[in-house]
Known about the structure:
The protein is an alpha+beta fold. The protein has a single domain, classed as Alpha-Beta Plaits (2-Layer Sandwich), CATH 3.30.70. The chain contains five helices and four strands. Strands 2-3-1-4 form a four-stranded antiparallel β-sheet. 16% of the residues are buried.
Amino acid sequence: MEIVQKIEKGGEDIVFVYTICGDMEEARSMGYSAIREKLAISMDYWLINSIYPWQGVIHELNQYILMFSTHKNISNTLMKHIEAEHSYSVPMITRCLIDITNIPYSLWVENTLKSEDPYITETEEEAIKRRQEDTGFNKLK
């Protein structure tokens, strides 16, 4: 199988779901909750400048753009999840189809989202490691 065939084979099942919110805390909260619920494999966010009309007035302000990577089969559920958590009364939530992804990434997305294992944060992982180290140290005394 040629490299192009390998890459193209993995593309059709992954999509981006994208939205905008007003602050970093809301962005992080939406990202963590979607990933914990296994509705997304990742969420990238960054600060943007926006210009838009709202209630007859043109506004210019800083917002955060969020781009979730997920499997096409669960993207509608993710979009509903984002809408339920969003602070805006009229949030923009859209899905973008992906033509091509590399096979290792596609397989990682599929396997990770199918896994029944719960996720933990890096902080939780560090606390577990400290407890394990403390337990090991105490046994040596």
